[in-house]
Amino acid sequence: MVELQSAIKLFAGLASVYAAEKTQSASTAEEVCPEEWKGMKYGYPYYFTGYALEPTCPNVKSLSSLVTIALNALKLVSSKLYDLLSGVRKFYHDVAVIVATPVGTQFSHLPAVQNLTVLPVNESDTEGKVWKSLVEATKTKYVFVGRQLYGLFTNDTKLERLIRAANRMAAVVVGGSHRNETGHWSLGCYQTAMRN
């Protein structure tokens, strides 16, 4: 009898956790449009379109109200920063961008970018301090931490997918693969799980 009561208590606990997760995912599900897997051959030969966004999702929030792109340009030459910002604006024209640059640096030839904030930082600051300053300067729920992009921001960069993954997994940090300058995929991070 005690074992049955323990099992019932365990299932009741699992059900309440599931219900809480379901409520949370229902409240965040409409932040970005859902996407649908179109199959192995969809988008052949380059597979830029393997997933497709649902055509109508009227209740989603604008991406500019959800995410800010943070970039550390301390070691990025100005031509690469120009390419990077041009790529950002090509795919995400109204999302806020915060760029950390060395104090006194002038980037007069950068593209005209709306919602661009230049955050002057000391070149002697640690990378951690620079990223902390960048994140603290944001006002949105999500921050895209653009580490080691080296001027690349392409149609492979899917901010919506990162937001969807964070919501689905109730994660604080999500990451993804990216293509490097030679066009090869770089993992960026590995999937891990922590369990008691």
Write the layout of secondary structure elements.
Layout: H1 2-28, E1 35-37, E2 51-53, H2 63-66, E3 67-72, H3 78-91, E4 96-102, E5 116-121, H4 127-136, E6 142-146, H5 159-169, E7 178-179, E8 185-186
Parallel strand pairs: 3-4, 3-6, 4-5
Antiparallel strand pairs: 1-2, 7-8
Polypeptide structure, described:
The protein has 196 residues and is an alpha/beta fold. It has a domain at 62-186: Rossmann fold. The protein has five helices and eight strands, in the order αββαβαββαβαββ. The protein has a four-stranded parallel sheet with strand order 5-4-3-6. A two-stranded antiparallel ribbon has the order 1-2. Strand 7 and strand 8 (185-186) form a beta hairpin. The longest helix is centred in the first third of the chain and has 27 residues, at 2-28. The two termini are 28 Å apart.
Number of continuous helical runs: 5
CATH fold annotation of the domain at 62-186: Rossmann fold
Helix content: 25-40%
Characterize the main sheet.
4 strands, parallel
Q: What ranges have pLDDT less than 50 throughout 5 or more consecutive residues?
A: none
SSE order in H/E notation? HEEHEHEEHEHEE
Cα-to-Cα separation, first versus last residue: 28 Å
Across the major sheet, the strand order is 5-4-3-6
Radius of gyration: 21 Å
The count of β-strands is 8
Give the class-level CATH name of the domain at 62-186. Alpha Beta
Shape: globular
Query: By helix and strand content, what is the structural category?
Result: alpha/beta
CATH architectural type of the domain at 62-186: 3-Layer(aba) Sandwich
Strand content: 15-25%
User: Mean of the pLDDT scores?
Assistant: 75
